[in-house]
Specification:
- The protein has 21 helices and no strands.
- The chain is mainly alpha-helical and 477 residues long.
- The chain folds into 3 domains: 75 residues, no CATH class; 179 residues, no CATH class; 158 residues, no CATH class.
- α6 packs antiparallel against α21.
- The longest helix is centred in the C-terminal third of the chain and has 31 residues.
- This is Zn(2)-C6 fungal-type domain-containing protein.
- InterPro entries: Fun_TF, Zn2-C6_fungal_TF, Zn2Cys6_DnaBD.
Length: 477
């Protein structure tokens, strides 16, 4: 049935009712189109009973006061040059992340790579803007590895990470919930990645590599960031344990099989020689003594395990698994903790081809070695392996230099055994947190979130320190 057009301006009643474009609303559109662009007459019935009027394709029903969608409006987008530049930068960063950067977040793990490429961006689009900012920050950092002097990429990397830290910390302050647990875990992981990867852009003579006394400064922000991941996981495990995003990422790591007995011969066993005497002399409290002993033993066990399967990404597990007590020992610059850390950086030499680890082993090992007296007969001999590895030229490290044949032992590499490793460990830690919460006096629900907040705060302070240092450096020039 044909209906008469009431010719009401700016949009006739029938066109408004049926949600189609009306010639009265933009009378000049059809006249200004080229012949090839002019809509062809259709056999369908027009809402406006005018033989010279052609209908445009239907549009969703909208209020008469609602402007037509952009694709209906011939007017140019009201974007300034600045907003256009920002828009193109975000498109560039998102494209680079989904095509290239996501592949570098997981080593030899197709399942994890697909999650970082497809699932994580989709989750970021559902309202987790802090996660989206983290993706863009990491992508900008990756692009900087190809163009280190690109000021736009430097600003983008810093700006998006600053925004991430601010919003992420605010969300933690409000508490972890079932709805945001996955996004917070992924953001914590990207913050840790950014903290680790940004170290490669620090100049050798930069104040970021030195403390107030001018000596080498340990990358403690790495450990603070990974402690933040552990806190988020432990406090929200009752939700994350069933996550189709988090569990595959956790299980994509090489199977963690540690010998914590300390009884068997191992490659880094010499780093534990004299540990009881040290604990007796420096740690008076029995609980602290136990934590110190466990911290050292666990760290060395991870080194021994990773040493056997270096090219699998296993050395990266060290940052995520060492205890909070071990981090405290590093902060106190205990010689034993420093020697263990030097050996860890020696292990990273096997991943020197990864863009965010390139050249890192040599610089960090030699930085740690500079903190020791060359005449120190106790510790200097224990530093020889990381120094030898760090100074080695070439991607392939011969077994006689590495110290042992790389193993293909299925007990070490079997991915199926991981549920008994990482996941079981997290289950245990989560149960411990739950038990503590149920002990009188009751700990507030926000207590666990505060652990993660402390790590984020430490990361934010480190970020601000680096930015201040860079600004001062630029000002001096």
């Amino acid at each position: 049935m044909r209906s008469q057009c009431d010719e009401v301006h700016p949009r006739c009643g029938n066109c408004t009712k049926h949600g189609v474009a009306c010639d009265f609303e933009h009378p000049g559109i059809v006249d200004t189109l080229s012949p090839a662009e002019t809509p062809r007459p259709t056999t369908s019935t027009s809402n406006c009973d005018s033989p010279s009027t052609n209908t445009l394709p239907p549009t969703p029903s909208v209020e008469s006061t609602t402007p037509l969608p952009i694709y209906r409006n011939p007017e140019p987008l009201p974007l300034t040059n600045s907003s256009k530049s920002n828009r193109m930068m975000e498109l560039k960063l998102l494209h680079h992340y989904t095509t290239i950067t996501c592949q570098t977040l997981a080593i030899s793990s197709p399942v994890s790579e697909k999650i970082w490429r497809d699932t994580v961006p989709n989750l970021a689009f559902t309202g987790a803007e802090f996660l989206a900012d983290a993706l863009l920050a990491v992508s900008a950092l990756h692009l900087r590895s190809h163009s280190p002097q690109d000021q736009e990429l430097i600003r983008a990397s810093h700006s998006y990470m600053a925004s991430t830290l601010s919003e992420y910390s605010a969300r933690l302050g409000k508490g972890i919930t079932e709805e945001n647990a996955e996004a917070l875990f992924l953001t914590a992981a990207l913050i840790a990645f950014q903290s680790t990867a940004s170290r490669i852009f620090t100049r050798e003579d930069s104040s970021d590599l030195k403390d107030r006394s001018g000596r080498y400064s340990l990358p403690l922000s790495w450990f603070h960031s990974f402690q933040g991941i552990k806190a988020v996981v432990a406090s929200s495990w009752h939700w994350l344990r069933n996550s189709g995003i988090v569990i595959p990422i956790i299980e994509s790591q090489p199977a963690l099989n540690l010998d914590l007995s300390g009884q068997n011969a191992n490659f880094f066993g010499h780093l534990l020689t004299g540990v009881e005497e040290e604990i007796a002399n420096l740690d008076e409290d029995p609980i602290t003594q136990s934590l110190t002993r466990q911290g050292y033993q666990h760290a060395v066990a991870v080194l021994d395990w990773a040493h056997k399967i270096p090219h699998t990404g296993a050395p990266l597990v060290f940052l995520a698994t060492v205890s909070r007590r071990f981090v405290e020992l590093l902060e106190a610059r205990r010689p034993r903790a420093l020697a263990i850390l030097a050996s860890y950086f020696g292990l990273l030499k096997s991943l020197d081809s990864v863009w965010w680890l390139k050249g890192l082993a040599r610089r960090e090992v030699m930085g740690i070695v500079s903190l020791f007296d060359p005449d120190d007969k106790e510790w200097w001999p224990r530093l020889q392996w990381p120094v030898r590895i760090a100074m080695h030229e070439g991607d392939f490290i011969p077994p006689e230099i590495w110290g042992a044949e790389h193993t293909n032992d299925t007990a070490l590499l079997d991915q199926g055994g991981q549920s008994g490793g990482y996941v079981s460990h997290i289950e245990l830690v989560s149960q411990m947190f739950t038990a503590v919460q149920n002990m009188p006096p009751a700990i507030p629900d926000e207590a666990l979130d505060a652990l993660a907040q402390q790590s984020v705060l430490a990361q934010a302070q480190e970020f601000n320190r680096q930015m201040t240092s860079r600004n001062d450096s630029h000002a001096s020039h």
